[in-house]
Amino acid sequence: MHCFRKSLYSSAAEAASPDVDVPTEMSAEAAEAVKDADDERRWYVVHCYSGYENKVRHNLEQRIDTMAMKDKIFDVVVPTEEEIEVKEGQRRTVERRVFPGYILVQMKLTEDSWYVVRNTPGVTGFVGMGNTPTPLQPQEVAQILKRMEAEAPKIKVNFKSGQKVRIVDGPFNDFIGTVGEIDAERAKVRVMVSFFGRETPVELDFLQVEKA
Question: Second label for 179, Cα 20 to 30 Å away, from 11, 35, 44, 129?
Answer without folding.
Answer: 11
